[in-house]
Write a structure and sequence with these properties.
Elements lengths: L11 E5 L25 H13 L4 E5 L16 H10 L3 E6 L2 H9 L1 H5 L3 E4 L6 H8 L4 H14 L3 E2 L1
Parallel strand pairs: 1-2, 2-3, 3-4, 4-5
Helix pairs in contact: 3-6
This protein binds iron/sulfur cluster (SF4).
């Protein structure tokens, strides 16, 4: 979109947060889940958040792979709850894409951070559990359904 001063304005951005994942879905396009990337430092997160808001970006989708795993597989090390709170405090509308893992963890362990999410896309490959698991090569159907239930519980718009 072109703004009134003739510059291109960016309204919507995607941020690939994860650097690891306990699963290895066959069709996962993130090399980060196969060769772990470096951990996200809080200074990196702050710089990205500042740049997003400096550019006037009003909608950010957190995904890529599982956005929970910003700092390896231990969710307690994750910067995601911090990032959610920071973006929300700057009036950024936040979407999350997940196979279920991220939504379920936040719902159970970081309910306040979970509630600042505007909308959640849950990746389901099939309405049939067996087909979903075979396609993924990972037992994630239950996690996906649980995440949809968590969204319903707190009234977050969701789709699969
Ligand atoms: S759950 Fe998502 S990030 Fe993890 S391996 Fe599967 S597709 Fe990739």
């Amino acid at each position: 979109m072109m703004s009134t001063n003739g510059h291109m304005s960016i309204l919507n951005a995607g941020w690939t947060l994860g650097n690891d994942c306990p699963y290895r879905c066959r069709h996962c396009y993130s090399i980060m889940v196969r060769t772990k990337g470096r951990n996200l430092h809080i200074n990196d997160a702050n710089r990205i958040i500042m740049q997003l808001t400096d550019y006037g970006i009003s909608v950010v989708n957190l995904g890529g792979n599982e956005p929970l795993f910003t700092n390896g597989l231990n969710p307690r090390d994750s910067l995601l709850p911090y990032i959610l709170r920071e973006l929300h405090s700057r009036q950024v509308t936040i979407g999350v894409t997940t196979a279920g893992i991220t939504a379920n963890y936040l719902f159970e362990n970081e309910p306040e951070a979970f509630r600042v999410i505007n909308d959640i896309d849950v990746s389901l490959d099939s309405p049939f559990p067996e087909e979903h698991e075979v396609n993924r090569g990972a037992p994630l159907f239950g996690q996906g359904l649980k995440a949809l239930g968590a969204c319903q519980d707190v009234g977050i718009p969701h789709r699969s």
